[in-house]
Amino acid sequence: MSFARVSSAQATLFKSIPIVVEIDIAKGLHSFSVVGLPDKAVEESRDRVSAAIKNTDFSKDPKFKPPKNSNQKITVSLAPASVHKEGPLFDIPIALAYLSAVGEIPLLHQSQFFLGELSLDGHVRPAKGVLSFVRCAKEAGAREVFVPLHNVQEASLIKDISIYPIETLSEIIGHLRGESRINPYKNNLAQHKNAPNPLHTFDAIQGQDHAKRGLVITAAGGHNIALFGPPGTGKTMLAKALASLLPPLSYEASLEVTEIHSIAGTLRGNIITDAPMRSPHHTASYVSIVGGGTIPKPGEVTLAHKGVLFLDEFPEFEKKVINALRQPLEDRVVSISRAKGSEIFPSDFILIAAMNPCPCGFYGTNKCTCSPTLLRNYQQKISGPIMDRIDMWIEVGAVDHGTLLTEKHTSDETDSARKQVQHARETQYKRFRKRDRLNSGMSAQGIAHHISLSQKCTDILNTAAKKLDLSPRSYHRVIKLARTIADIEGSTEIKEAHLLEALAYRPKQEL
């Protein structure tokens, strides 16, 4: 009877913690206990590990006794004991620690990290949070990590560490014994680039040039935008077409976004290389949008990080959900506090809000059936602070029916817009000397440092601010929006036309 130790980690968003799986086997009546604040899924590892060992063929001992068939006292400790352990991903470390303690495999080095859930026949199941696990392992000094085969491409986003894909328990045991070899995975990131989505592009939308112009500005500078107008005028199509304008994510952003979706269990495929677009239904709960739960989990505002959050039928969302957007829209993070812990999740996204002018959608026409009270309640769902945080308010009017079936003679509208966006973003990267930094993220100090307005532009802005009663936040947002318009036009300075266009996008209540 003996003792063994195996290295693993508890994968959580941006602060994964190294976990040491220790096992002690002593004489006595059979018992198998797991200590160290395990949740139900971790405690159930006892049964999965026992069955997997029983059903795994070992070249030396094909009928090796699993833990439950031996009269021995088995104690598994997950250290540090003060950290809550959750999920089934400690199956592999527990199984290997047991086999090492009884002499079936050699003692494992602390620079080897293991993670994976076992099926009852010894196969290794796909896991959540593998990218966060590998990052944590590297920071803890690991040289080798062993992860499920299904997750190996995701894990290989972390550079300068050997990634070993494992498919079965017998496979990894053979590797550790030296009887066979698992080759480390070599990733080619280029082959995992997501294919562009051709379903929603500007080329498929007739008219609405004013709204398209607004979306180009939005994509170029990362500004928030609201599209309002009667139903059926293309607001949803326009919003979804924005994704076709956004450039691929940088390596750092791709790593960050993939890790978020891996932890949340929403990762489709292995690597996210394009900006995510989230479009929750207006009946979505507060927790699903903002995040939360007994143990804080990310919501839609975090899943849209480095991408787009599209809220269709914006006023139909719960008022507390709409008001909860204040912090992420301003600080680009969201703070979640609960009894069992608090988390700060990243929430740097572009907001697209689409809405009808009234509940029935036909405000200002003889079709409108809304009473004054109903209309007032509808409009009050969107508070002043939220309106203040949206840079552009664009009306999407009705399209002339005669143009709907007209064949478009050009098909490069999306390509042209994408080039404008890319050029403007490259200008901003050079200005801030940082990749992924856009005009919308400038602070007041950043505006003073990077932007200089002519006296004529200053006079126009101050006069407009006084007439429109702009708040200091709106004042700065107009300047940042004008800077983006100038970048699209290739101008090194903000001109009067750029500033006037930025002012024209303020909400109608101010105008």
Architecture overview:
The protein is 36% helix and 17% strand. With 511 residues, it is α/β, with parallel strands linked by helices. The strands form 6 sheets. A 5-stranded parallel beta sheet has the order 11-14-17-10-18. β12 (291-292) and β13 (297-298) form a beta hairpin. α18 (455-468) packs parallel to α20 and α19 packs across α20. The termini are far apart.
Task: Give descriptors for this structure.
511 residues; Ribosomal Protein S5, domain 2; alpha/beta; 18 strands; single chain; 5-stranded parallel sheet; 3 domains
Determine the fraction of residues in helical runs and give it as a percent range: 25-40%
- The Rg value, from CA coordinates, equals 28 Å
Quick one: CATH superfamily of the largest domain?
P-loop containing nucleotide triphosphate hydrolases
Stretches where pLDDT is under 50 for at least 5 consecutive residues are none
CATH hierarchy class name of the largest domain: Alpha Beta
Whole-Å distance between the termini? 81 Å
> How many domains, in number, for the residues?
3
Output the structural class. Answer: alpha/beta
